[in-house]
Every structure is written in C-alpha cells, then in structure tokens.
Amino acid sequence: MQRFAVGIEFCGMNYRGWQTQQPGVASVQETIEKVLSTVANETIVLHGAGRTDAGVHATNMVAHFDTTAVRSIHGWLRGCNSQLPKDISIQWIKAMDDDFHARFKAKARRYRYVVYNHPVRPALLHKQVTHAYYDLNVDAMIAAAKKFEGTHNFESFRAASCQSNQPVRHVRHCRLIPHGQYLVLDIQADGFLHHMVRNIMGCLLEVGQGMYSIEYIDEIFAAEDRKAAGITAPPDGLYFIHAEYPTEFDLPKMPLGPHWLNMPE
C-alpha cells in the first residue's frame, strides 16, 4: 500500500462543495475519487486538507489517498487529468510516507477572497469574483481586517449549521490587499468555521460602505451571536489557496492562482 499526496485546482461553480454528498449531488471529492478509482482499478478514498462550500474554488487543495496500484507519477497525472472534467485538474502528485495526512497534519489553512470593485460587472470573471458596484472606503476595510487577527471566539462569524465543537480559532494574518480594481482578502488560520471567511468578508464590505464603524467589530465578537454580524458574502470570490505542513513533508510550492489572485503581498 502506497500513500500519495496530490495538489488539486478546481473551479467550484458546478459543485456543491468539496465533500462527497448524497447520491446525485456533484462534489469535487467524489468526482476525483471516481477517476482515481478508474486509473487505479480499485476503489480510492480521497482525504482533503479542508472543506469548501458550494461554488468555492481552490488553487491548491492538498489531499491524499492510499493504493496498491503501481503507476508512474506521469501515469497518474495523465490518466487522471485526461478523464477529469475541465474544471478540475490535479497539478502534482507525490509519494508519501504513511505518517502524512492531508487533514490532520495541516498546521494552517489559507484562503483568499477576491472582490471586483467597479460600477460595471465583469463578464469573463463571472462566478470567479464577487462584484461590488458601490463605492468602498478601502482604508477603513484595511484597518478593520486587522481586527480579526489573533485568537478569538468566532461564534458570531460562523453559520448556524456549523458542526465544529468549538468556535475559537487563531488567525495568523488577515489583510486586505488593494490591487487595481480588485480587493483581495488574504487570511490564514489554524482552522476555519463554516462560512467564517465569507462572513468576515461580508462584515468588511459593510464597513467599507459605512454601515458601521471599525470599533463595532469588537461588539460583534462580544455578542457571540451570528445575528449580531452582517451579510454572508457570496461564494464566488472565495479560493482555498494553501495548506501549511511541517517542512519534512516537502510538498511542492504552487502559485497562489491567476494574476488577479496572485498579486504581490
């Protein structure tokens, strides 16, 4: 039995998220498992570094699987990518020791959320960015993003359906980066709650519109109630871009995405 780690890029607009759902509901995980099973000629179970909502994308979702099948790296890549739908691609594959686990060995996960701030909606970036047609106070949003750094109780920023046992998370960085007409939220944490990034982005968009002050975010945290926070931003602009692992695993380094996502920090 050999364990392999894989890096996966996908456009999530046609899927109900990463995780396998009930029969008849398309998921990224199940789609890849079917192809891997065909290439391996045995049933393959894929374990991802995290989960994504319906419509959310990824530039480098790390996952792993075990198999008795013997294939070259080139064989795995060509065999899988020739059969996967065009909106999913395996970018790399690497043989690993049994102590690697895509989910449990990840020390941190990182997302980017892309807003296109322009009066006219984009066409080529349909479902790949969130369109904000209104004026935004970007300086206020940059300052507000810093409020989310550190260890906090994110009860007010998770979905009512969130299944996590506890809402405390440590956010290593949360920064809003202006990039021409784009605003990119870059956030890394030891873990994320259901809708956490989208709810944070929704809060920042409301701050940018002047709906409340930066200081009001402290009151939202203190309330520990989802109703105290604002909107949930759409899934369209959200990308899983990275999972951090101990250096001994030596996983490939990948770009953070296309040019409008992979800007200088």
UniProtKB/TrEMBL annotation:
GO process terms (BP): tRNA pseudouridine synthesis
Superkingdom in the source lineage: Bacteria
Keywords: Isomerase, tRNA processing
Every Pseudouridine synthase I TruA alpha/beta domain range: 9-104, 144-246
Residues annotated to bind substrate: Y111
Keyword GTP-binding included in the entry's annotation: no
Catalytic activity: uridine(38/39/40) in tRNA = pseudouridine(38/39/40) in tRNA
Annotated catalytic residues: D53
Known EC number: 5.4.99.12
Gene Ontology MF term list: RNA binding; tRNA pseudouridine(38-40) synthase activity
CDD domains the record matches: PseudoU_synth_EcTruA
Pfam families: PseudoU_synth_1
Family (UniProt): Belongs to the tRNA pseudouridine synthase TruA family.
Reported function: Formation of pseudouridine at positions 38, 39 and 40 in the anticodon stem and loop of transfer RNAs.
Subunit annotation: Homodimer.
UniProt name for this protein: tRNA pseudouridine synthase A
Organism of provenance: Acinetobacter wanghuae
